[in-house]
Specification:
Chain lengths: 113, 111
């Protein structure tokens, strides 16, 4: 298994542009989590899904952020419009709902200038 | 609300030393607990997962213990090596939900 795959690895964009981050889950996992990591705030949970259904999106900072799971193996996190304070590393992780622990992707480093 | 703390925030030791990293959580009603390692500029790598019914897990030179009643977990690293230098994070699994992460301990093992 290739693990959790995120793309792109790095993204540099101008303020106001739309950004889409992508994540492919491990085959057989049914839960998907999006995290954001910054030096100041550490790891913050943005949203998580179980069986393609959003369970808790209370960590999504603003309406500019949205996430979808169009199928059981793929998810996107979209920021529109992007702002410099959105600059961070965005991770997705997948797991089995029954408590198999997390497997993280390598992250997307987003820089908004 | 579950809160997770880790002590120390940073640790520097000479190569070969045995060391203990500490993780504390406020609510003992946890599902499991996971220890991760993060290298600078990289993602998180899972080290050990302890279910709530277990007391410890071992993998190579690593041993993690869990004491739910006192809200503590420790990660023991034996015979530390420079390659162990990284940030170590513990994450507490909430029942049927998600993990709450601690702030991490930054470890430096000096050759």
């Amino acid at each position: 298994d290739a693990g959790v795959i995120q793309s792109p690895r790095h993204e540099v964009t101008e303020m106001g542009q739309e950004v889409t981050l992508r994540c492919k889950l491990i085959s057989g996992h049914n839960s998907l989590f999006w995290y954001r990591q910054t030096m100041m705030r550490g790891l913050e949970l943005l949203i998580y899904f179980n069986n393609n259904v959003p369970i808790d999106d209370s960590g999504m900072p603003e309406d500019r952020f949205s996430a979808k799971m169009p199928n059981a193996s793929f998810s996107t996190l979209k920021i529109q419009p992007s702002e410099p304070r959105d600059s961070a590393v965005y991770f997705c992780a997948s797991s089995l709902w029954e408590g198999g622990g997390y497997t993280f992707g390598s992250g997307t480093r987003l820089t908004v200038v | 609300k579950q809160e997770v703390t880790q002590i120390p925030a940073a640790l520097s030791v000479p190569e070969g030393e045995n060391l203990v990293l500490n993780c504390s959580f406020t609510d003992s009603a946890i599902y499991n607990l996971q220890w991760f390692r993060q290298d600078p500029g990289k993602g998180l790598t899972s080290l050990l997962l302890i279910q709530s019914s277990q007391r410890e897990q071992t993998s190579g030179r690593l041993n993690a213990s869990l004491d739910k009643s006192s809200g503590r977990s420790t990660l023991y690293i034996a015979a530390s090596q420079p390659g162990d230098s990284a940030t170590y994070l513990c994450a507490v699994g909430l029942s049927g939900q998600n993990f709450v992460f601690g702030p991490g301990t930054r470890l430096s093992v000096l050759p």
